[in-house]
């Protein structure tokens, strides 16, 4: 039996609704106006429409000429270099056939870029990564701008791709939208083994060939990487927000069940257009309750800290103002129910086999920790998502009730016996600014670190200092000038093996940065997304080597333990960032860097009216 809604969940939702009242009303008025004009394709001129179906086969052409049947736009992040997106090569064929089977049509409306943070880690291309989210949103808008479509199917998986597709889809919020995943690759070598090889390589005890062999055995097949980083957090988010079909997130690619789910997504998209009787536009599905459910799912699974940026930006695209304080309040009441690498040794295939999202959603609903009364692409109510997708003996897609108990308590637990009583995410505030820390994998005795700081402006400098033995002590490593306006806010995941080695040697170590670390940050305490960033004169720019810094995840503070008058009187340091502003396409992103909003507001180039200022970001 479902419990009443948790009072903190209700309070946070109402607070978001109140602060968003005007912006949400303006958004809904805009999409309702677009919907009220009826199916757009029918209003195209003959020349416009002829261009729109010129390449179609005879049957599809006849259907599009008539204008009475749904036409589904496919927006795809397919490429065949990236394992997560290669399976999408087959999806348009499956979707088109399924659409024809219910009297609809489907066209590939356009493609969006899909870059891989795993390939670009530590490389110049990583400085395009975060802004690729906004490029994807823009590309989605271009794809849909032909006004030919009654619904959209969005094929994307990885880090910035799904958030970018979401922002673009919400701009066309009068159209129904279903997100169609590709699924995770089968499990490779155990994650603990991969991590050990990485750390041995960081210490110079493993060769490059040994490291490459371990990495290749981990990332070895089509499908999403199996650790619980941003890509798989995206899939959880789409399902718990009701934008996937139930049970779709973690089914492996190129299997009969995955194909059946893809075909069903096409049929369902046709059924929920304005041409039918069950119209479900994405702009109505993504409301304050759905956003709160997404944040709760992030906490319950120990998901990627990148979503401190992405969910905020997604919410803003729907006219909803989500703040870090909302994440913090919800984290206090949402238990951690999953341990998936890097928060544990299991991968997402083990999580799915143990009961996965169906079990977890059911647990959270029964505990009153999710809004159950939401709208979803599958129909009204989130209860529809406490099921597992299967094939019956005839090969047809069916749904079975979720397991009542976890299949592996080392991976997935009930609300009554969680891994933690809270979500393990903290907002940090203090004289160094506002940031966040994820402690779901950080040992209890490492959640407060106080030590002299060592300051860097490049992550490569950290590795060099480590190799010289200069960090072999208690230290707070500060890597500044890594924010969106400085260099595009790259991930600093390459620091993880180095800092992990120092921690394993017994030193008390923490990272403080205005950059990102993502869902792969692991067991080293990391105060990330510190805002305002150093490039905008934020407090990190006034730190000096040797200043004692306290990172306190228990109290939620981030402090330089120095004389206040002296600290305020210091001239902020500057950095020569010219090398980060050209080459590898970075010169094309100057406009994005110049207008990007602060990390606390999603670090979006669409947030040009919110230039970061120290006064607006630091609490009194």
Rounded Rg: 24 Å
What's the number of domains? 2
Characterize the largest beta sheet: strand count, sense, and whether it forms a barrel.
8 strands, mixed
User: Biggest sheet: strands side by side, in what order?
Assistant: 9-10-14-13-12-11-15-16
Give the low-confidence spans.
608-620
Strand content: 5-15%
Distance linking N and C termini: 44 Å
Number of strands: 16
Helix-residue proportion: 25-40%
Structural class: alpha/beta
**Number of distinct helices:** 24
Mean pLDDT: 92
Global shape: globular
Pathway: Carbohydrate metabolism; Entner-Doudoroff pathway
Family: Belongs to the IlvD/Edd family.
EC number: 4.2.1.12
GO molecular function, one term: phosphogluconate dehydratase activity
Mind explaining what this structure looks like?
Mean pLDDT is 92; it is low at 608-620. Helix 7 runs parallel beside helix 8 (161-171) and helix 8 (161-171) packs parallel to helix 15 (307-317). An 8-stranded mixed beta sheet has the order 9-10-14-13-12-11-15-16. A 4-stranded parallel beta sheet has the order 2-1-3-4, sandwiched between helices. The chain has a two-stranded antiparallel sheet with strand order 5-6. The chain has 2 domains: 7-186 and 221-401, no CATH class; 425-601, 3-Layer(bba) Sandwich (Glucose Oxidase, domain 1). It has helices at 7-19, 21-36, 46-53, 58-66, 91-101, 117-120, 129-144, 161-171, 191-202, 208-218, 230-240, 256-271, 282-285, 288-301, 307-317, 324-331, 348-353, 356-366, 459-467, 484-487, 495-504, 564-569, 590-595, 614-617; strands spanning 71-76, 105-111, 151-155, 177-180, 375-376, 379-380, 387-391, 397-401, 425-430, 433-438, 448-456, 475-479, 509-513, 526-531, 548-552, 557-560. The chain is 37% helix and 13% strand. The protein has 24 helices and 16 strands. The chain is α/β, with parallel strands linked by helices and 620 residues long. Its cofactor is [4Fe-4S] cluster. Residues 411-603 form the Dihydroxy-acid/6-phosphogluconate dehydratase C-terminal domain. Pathway: Carbohydrate metabolism; Entner-Doudoroff pathway.
């Amino acid at each position: 039996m479902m419990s009443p809604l948790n009072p903190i969940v209700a309070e946070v939702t109402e607070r978001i609704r109140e602060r968003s009242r005007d912006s949400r009303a303006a958004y809904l008025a805009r999409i309702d106006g677009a919907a009220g004009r009826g199916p757009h394709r029918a209003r195209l001129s003959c020349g416009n429409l002829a261009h729109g179906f010129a390449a179609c086969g005879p049957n599809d052409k006849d259907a599009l000429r008539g204008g009475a049947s749904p036409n589904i736009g496919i927006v795809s992040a397919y490429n065949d270099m990236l394992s997560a997106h290669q399976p999408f090569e087959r999806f348009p064929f499956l979707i088109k056939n399924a659409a024809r089977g219910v009297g609809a049509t489907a066209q590939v409306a356009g493609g969006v870029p899909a870059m891989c943070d795993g390939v670009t880690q530590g490389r110049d291309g990583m400085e395009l990564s975060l802004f690729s989210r906004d490029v994807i949103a823009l590309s989605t808008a271009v794809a849909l701008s032909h006004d030919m479509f009654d619904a959209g199917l969005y094929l994307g998986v990885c880090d910035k791709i799904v958030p970018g597709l979401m922002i673009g889809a919400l701009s066309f919020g009068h159209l129904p939208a279903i997100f169609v995943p590709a699924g995770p690759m089968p499990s490779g070598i155990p994650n603990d083994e991969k991590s050990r090889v990485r750390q041995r390589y960081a210490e110079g005890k493993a060769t490059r060939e040994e490291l490459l062999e371990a990495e290749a055995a981990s990332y070895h097949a089509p499908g999403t990487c199996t650790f619980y980083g941003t890509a798989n957090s995206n899939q959880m988010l789409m399902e718990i927000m009701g934008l996937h079909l139930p049970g779709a997130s973690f089914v492996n690619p190129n299997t009969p069940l995955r194909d059946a789910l893809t075909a069903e997504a096409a049929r369902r998209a046709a059924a929920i257009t304005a041409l039918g009787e069950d119209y479900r536009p994405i702009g109505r599905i993504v409301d304050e309750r759905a956003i709160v459910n997404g944040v709760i799912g992030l906490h319950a699974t120990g998901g990627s800290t990148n979503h401190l940026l992405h969910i905020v930006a997604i919410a803003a695209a729907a006219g909803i103002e989500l703040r870090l304080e909302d994440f913090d309040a919800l984290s206090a009441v949402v238990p951690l129910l999953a341990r998936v690498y890097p928060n544990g040794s299991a991968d997402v295939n083990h999580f799915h086999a143990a009961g996965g999202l169906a079990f977890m959603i059911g647990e959270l609903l029964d505990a009153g920790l999710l809004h159950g009364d939401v709208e979803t692409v599958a129909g009204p109510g989130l209860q529809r998502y406490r099921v597992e997708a299967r094939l019956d003996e005839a090969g047809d897609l069916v749904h079975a009730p979720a397991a009542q108990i976890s299949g592996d308590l080392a991976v997935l637990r009930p609300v009554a016996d969680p891994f933690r009583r809270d979500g393990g995410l903290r907002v940090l505030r203090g004289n160094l600014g506002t940031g966040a820390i994820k402690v779901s994998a950080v040992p209890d005795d490492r959640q407060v670190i106080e030590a002299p700081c060592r300051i860097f402006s490049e992550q490569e400098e950290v590795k060099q200092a480590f190799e010289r033995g200069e960090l072999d002590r208690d230290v707070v490593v500060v890597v500044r000038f890594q924010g969106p306006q400085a260099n595009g806010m790259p991930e600093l995941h390459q620091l993880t093996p180095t800092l992990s080695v120092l921690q394993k040697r017994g030193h008390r170590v923490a990272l403080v940065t205005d950059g990102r670390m993502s869902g792969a940050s692991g067991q080293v305490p990391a105060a990330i997304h510190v805002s305002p960033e150093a490039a905008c004169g934020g407090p990190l720019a006034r730190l000096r080597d040797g200043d004692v810094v306290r990172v306190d995840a228990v109290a939620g503070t981030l402090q330089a333990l120095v004389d206040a008058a002296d600290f305020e009187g210091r001239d902020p340091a500057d950095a020569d960032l010219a090398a980060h502003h050209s080459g590898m396409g970075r010169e094309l992103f100057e406009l994005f860097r110049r207008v990007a909003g602060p990390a606390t507001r999603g670090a979006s180039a669409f947030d040009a009216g919110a230039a970061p200022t120290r006064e607006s970001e630091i609490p009194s």
